[in-house]
Amino acid sequence: MSVFEADKLEKVKEALSTCTMCGFCKSVCPSFKSIGWDSALSRGRLILTYGLLNGDIKADPSVIENMYTCTTCADCVRRCPSKVDIVEVIEMCRSDLVKNGHILPKHRNVADNVVRFGNPYAESKSVTDTLGIKPHRAKIGYFAGCTATYREKEIAKASLSILRKLGLDFTTVDEVCCGSVLQRIGIDEERAMELMKKNVDAVKAMGVETLILSCSGCYRMFKMEYPKFVDVPFKVLHMSEFLAERDLKLKPLGNVKVTYHDPCHLGRHCNVYDAPREVLRKFPDIDLKEMKFSRSASHCCGGGGGVRSAYPETAKSIAAARLDEAGFADIIVTACPFCVANLTAAADSRKLRTVDLTELVDSCL
């Protein structure tokens, strides 16, 4: 049986015929730099996709690994002179692999957890119970996201603390997983749409007019994916955008060198580059220096696209390379719990510390 459905045939053919195999993606692909084979590169994955489509190759473990070591960072899309949306093709391929029974055990476990518990970590307590704040009607809503709630907890704590210090009336919402993890690994859209509807209904039920999110992945879902399937009748802001609009009275950081890492979902996917830097410049004594590769050319942390859950060593290798680029700094600030988790896990003996923007702001507000 063909891996791909007929409705996706022309899209993949068009992508492959448009790709000139120039190799521009080779200079930026994080998984290729870690693995070293063209099959773990955008142009190689296009060829594998077409081979699966035509039945020329089978979905054996090596093919599946190459399709799932992509972090979906979209740096190849930025670099591609032919403007091929390679990430879209890879995610279509993953979707059809899953439909045909080719799903990685760790990804199956994650998907089952989302269905059963409403989060990928199999946590039985709801987000609101974990945060300790019951929802109430308010114009400002806070969407913590699974990772900031259950794993990188300091990010959610700092976000809530900031909102309190600013004297705002805000509410949490009865949220479940935003659905990003399911879309990235290829689980069917119907499950993701169920999560989207639950979350939008929970936000609307509290009368929220502005929803603030800590997680770049969740933010991308609400900004880019949700409107494709459900009506989003409220303003959506990443915490960095929200803070950039505020007159923050911040204490000095002290004698530390700071650099900023652009999360892929916040930067290349959603084009949010200025807001986090505007917040950092609110620190009166900030010594902020950009890495060589920043903003749209920022290198990936390696934690996205389901790579960290299925191939942790590849994710760590990609993160280590990014940390080496920030070796001149004392602190690397980012705006995504996934980036914080993956960069921290790869730190080893480095003195470089990774913190979320909200943690830094809260400590000085």
Characterization of this structure:
50% of the residues are buried. This protein has helices at residues 9-18, 30-35, 42-54, 61-68, 75-79, 86-99, 105-117, 127-131, 146-150, 153-165, 180-185, 189-205, 216-229, 239-244, 274-280, 307-310, 312-325, 337-345, 357-364; strands at 140-143, 170-172, 210-213, 235-238, 257-260, 287-288, 331-334, 353-356. The strands form two sheets. Strands 2-1-3-4 form a four-stranded parallel beta sheet. A four-stranded parallel beta sheet has the order 6-5-7-8, sandwiched between helices. 48% of the residues lie in helices and 8% in strands. With 365 residues, it is α/β, with parallel strands linked by helices. Helix 1 crosses helix 3 (42-54), helix 3 crosses helix 6 (86-99) and helix 10 crosses helix 19. Strand 7, helix 18 and strand 8 form a beta-alpha-beta unit. The model has no long low-confidence stretch (mean pLDDT 94). The chain folds into three domains: 6-102, Alpha-helical ferredoxin (Fumarate Reductase Iron-sulfur Protein, Chain B, domain 2, Orthogonal Bundle); 108-244, 3-Layer(aba) Sandwich (Rossmann fold); 257-364, Rossmann fold.
Q: What are the key terms here?
A:
single chain; 365 residues; alpha/beta; Fumarate Reductase Iron-sulfur Protein, Chain B, domain 2; Rossmann fold; 3 domains; four-stranded parallel β-sheet; globular
